[in-house]
Design brief:
- This protein is mainly α.
- The chain contains 12 helices and 2 strands, in the order H-H-H-H-H-H-E-E-H-H-H-H-H-H.
- The protein has one domain.
- 72% of the residues lie in helices and 2% in strands.
- Helix 4 runs antiparallel to helix 5, helix 8 packs antiparallel against helix 9 and helix 11 crosses helix 12.
- The longest helix has 30 residues.
- The radius of gyration is 20 Å and the shape is globular.
């Protein structure tokens, strides 16, 4: 059944609103968030009815498990200054792991893109991995990633708005190529992740918003498909769009790659850059 434009506007707007409220609740009530995602893992038996292929299983595990076991417990341990076994979650491996998991999630989609023949978009994904923010200064990599000691123990990642935009257009192009029927619902979770830090005027909240919107989306898709009846976008599938969208993404990502490393060189080696300019 082909859905009307009004149907998409209503269902997608409602979903974006639900996602924004979810991020706000998960962010504000960090203990509830940890319990919610731990309980969410108990839905594992239902996944067998919804998930097919290596990519879908890998994506579900690599999103839901870290959200529950690393983000949730890490925020509690860091903000509450928990002792005992909780001290394990107050060490640097938590942030290193989250950095690696973000890269892994992009890698999974990029490899799938390559298998699908969407080579330009696949390369764009690899560029995103190379430009994930980490070191802002040579002495303190935690200035790139941190769990705040201020209420409510936010996961802070200092991405820049351009990286966020490139991630959004790359990811949406990937979903459109991999399963166009879910492009509309995926657009909602990407839009919510972009809107939340704008509404809060806190750009460093983008990754946390992305974590919670994606995790909720994955949890729903892995247990019961509610998106096909309300937001099925397969009617908009086009091989022509896939090819050109990937090419446009690569054209946007390549200059960002050069700009990123020029900027990083200036930040990591300011004395050397100044010396070269003086000469």
């Amino acid at each position: 059944m082909q859905l009307s434009v009004g149907h998409y506007l209503i269902s997608m707007s409602l979903y974006v609103a639900i996602l924004l409220v979810t991020v706000e609740l998960m962010r504000k009530y960090y203990r509830f968030a940890a319990v919610f995602w731990l309980v969410g893992l108990l839905s594992f038996p239902l996944w067998f009815n919804q998930l097919e292929g290596w990519f879908r299983w890998a994506k579900t595990f690599s999103v839901l498990v870290p959200t529950a076991l690393i983000v949730g417990l890490g925020r509690i341990a860091q903000y509450d200054k928990r002792e005992g076994w909780w001290k394990l979650y107050r060490r640097d491996w938590v942030l290193w792991s989250l950095y690696g998991i973000l890269g892994l999630n992009i890698l999974e989609a990029s490899l799938k893109d390559w298998v699908l023949g969407n080579y330009f978009n696949s390369v764009s994904g690899f560029i995103l991995i190379a430009t994930i923010p980490l070191f802002r200064t040579r002495k303190s990599w935690k200035q790139g990633w941190a769990i705040s000691e201020q209420a409510p123990g936010d996961l802070l990642v200092y991405t820049d708005p351009l990286w966020n935009f490139l991630y959004t257009t790359w990811n949406l192009a990937f979903v459109y190529a991999e399963n166009p029927g879910y492009a509309a619902s995926s657009f909602c979770i990407l839009l919510a992740a972009e809107l939340y830090p704008l509404l809060k005027k806190r750009p460093e909240l983008y990754v946390m918003a992305r974590v919670y919107t994606l995790a909720l989306h994955i949890l729903i898709r892995s247990t019961y498909d509610i998106f096909t009846p309300f937001m099925d976008s397969s009617v908009f599938a086009s091989e022509w769009v896939v090819n050109y969208w990937g090419g446009i993404n690569l054209a946007l990502h390549l200059p960002y790659l050069f700009w990123y490393f020029i900027r990083r060189r200036k930040q990591l080696f300011p004395a050397e850059v100044h010396s070269n300019q003086t000469i």
